[in-house]
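(Structure overview)
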Amino acid sequence: MFAAVMAATASASHAQAPSPAAAPKPAPIDRNGVLILVRSTLLALDQANKTGNYTVLRDIGAPGFQSNTAARLGEIFAKLRSDNLDLSGVAVIDPQLNLLPQIEANGLMRMAGFFPSAPTQVNFDLSFAPVNGQWRLFGISVGVGSSAPAAPEPSSSPIAQRPPPPNHAKQAASAKPAPAIRLTPPANKPTDNQQPK
């Protein structure tokens, strides 16, 4: 099950026009910044699903994302809400990234990955636009299961909703997933000469 929202690139004044020659480049963001953005976004979605009030999720977005009404966001995430998907586990579990934060040709920062168990695997693909020196939500795709959600694509309408692909389980089994990149720092293991502190 997937739900995706992407703000229209035409209405996002802070995103630049795509340039076919420009390749994505690593985003200037540290581990803590990534954790804050991913967790706060998914927890806002979780609270919106639990309360049926999508105003805060809408309001934390970039201007292009805010062109969506709270009611429209409720329609898009109705399936996740009706399935009582609990995303609260993302508050304590570290995500694993399949796509490290990168600046796309259109100026958006994009990252994708999953939470291995929250209580089921939660896949996400997020885009953020720079607004007044802060990264604000521009696009969100969330799903559960063993494969990452399809990335939302810009569209001419304020929202693009991507349904699950047909025969999803078969495609997920045959797809070769991208390697996951853990955000957790390596454990400090003492050497023979060092004493643990």
